[in-house]
Amino acid sequence: MSVNCTILRRLVCHPHLERNAPALGPPRPTKRSRHVSRAPSGFWFWISSCSFISFPLVPVRVSFFHHISPRFRLSPSSMSLSSVYHDYSSFTNGTTFADAYSNFAQLPQLNVLEKIWGAYYYYMGNDVFATGLLFFSVHEFMYFFRCLPWAIIDRIPYFNKYKIQETKLPSNQEQWECLKSVLTSHFLVEAFPCWFFHPVCKKLGISFEVPFPSWTTICFHLAVFFVLEDAWHYWFHRGLHYGVFYKYIHKQHHRYAAPFGLTAEYAHPIEVMLLGFGTVGIPIVWCMLTGSLHLFTVCLWITLRLFQAVDSHSGYEFPWSLHHFLPFWAGADHHDEHHHYFIGSYSSSFRWWDAVLNTEAGPAGKAKREQKMKSRAEMAQKKQI
Ligand SMILES: [Zn+2]
Ligand SMILES: [Zn+2]
């Protein structure tokens, strides 16, 4: 048990466990660490993976130890109560997620999603951890969950007829290399800000309490974020195609002339941060200006934006693809042409910026530009007559 106690003190930051914790010195160098430091590749990948995986698992370990020994069971007074709900007077004590959910289940004014959301924050008992873990998990799960069908389809010959660049199927080696790079970027660049998101939300007034806003408000916010992110993406992506920006930053994303799902976030860290601001920064700025935003909306927005990014890199064009029903939706064929021709079609979700500014990629875009120039020349000639 004393071993368990030491492990817990090292892992857990609850005040009642930290109080008597011994001071932890720097880890002693070992043969293993000397060996790791010489590793030429994969070093940062494994180090960052281990540290960032272990960090979000801390609450899980705490929960695990609650069950195996009453000594580690947190009493309600020692846990910090979440601010997810304003009145816990009718709640009963419990240590499991089911206990937390049963408390929220008694609140008739909440729907199922709100009950799960409330129970999650109440069970975690640490809002900063809960938001960080939620955001990191949503990002990882939704990204790879959406990539998986495209990776499977790539291995089924029936679907080859729908492949836009049909002769360019990604090899297993290409998919594996891309996966490693994307994971490294997730752990080194994207995971870190997740843990600071809750304090930012608190500061700016992004609510995480239940109940959620109405669905009309949520849909309105999602629509605004799609439009604004598309504009941000168009201009900064176009900027990344100029000279040194392309050479030193954006070239990495264009390694695959025929993209596949996983390549959606295969990019230089500067590009990840710059274009990622359109996804995360725009909701933050929106809340600063309007004072109206809920964390649940941000979760939905990030999920939809990930789906859009992965789908646009899928490399597949189906008769049932969304842009056949919503002509202004960009879709895979729009972004595939960008990768194929290395220029033009810069926007992410919609086609209007490229259409209005004559930057559509490929032969179809070129034909449209020529047609426009011809029409303009004819108009000018008529005016002169
Ligand atoms: Zn590009
Ligand atoms: Zn791309």
Automatic annotation (TrEMBL):
Biased composition, class Basic and acidic residues, residue ranges: 367-385
Domain of life: Eukaryota
Residue stretches in coiled coil: none
InterPro entries with a match to the protein in the record: Fatty_acid_hydroxylase (IPR006694), Sterol_Desaturase_Related (IPR050307)
Keywords for this protein: Membrane, Transmembrane, Transmembrane helix
Residue ranges crossing the lipid bilayer per the database entry: 43-64, 212-235, 283-304
Biological process according to GO: lipid biosynthetic process
One function term, GO molecular function aspect: oxidoreductase activity
Domain Fatty acid hydroxylase: 223-359
Subcellular localization: Membrane
Region (Disordered): 364-385
GO cellular component: membrane
Pfam assignment, any one: FA_hydroxylase
The protein's name in its UniProt record: Fatty acid hydroxylase domain-containing protein
Species of the source: Meyerozyma guilliermondii (strain ATCC 6260 / CBS 566 / DSM 6381 / JCM 1539 / NBRC 10279 / NRRL Y-324) (Yeast)
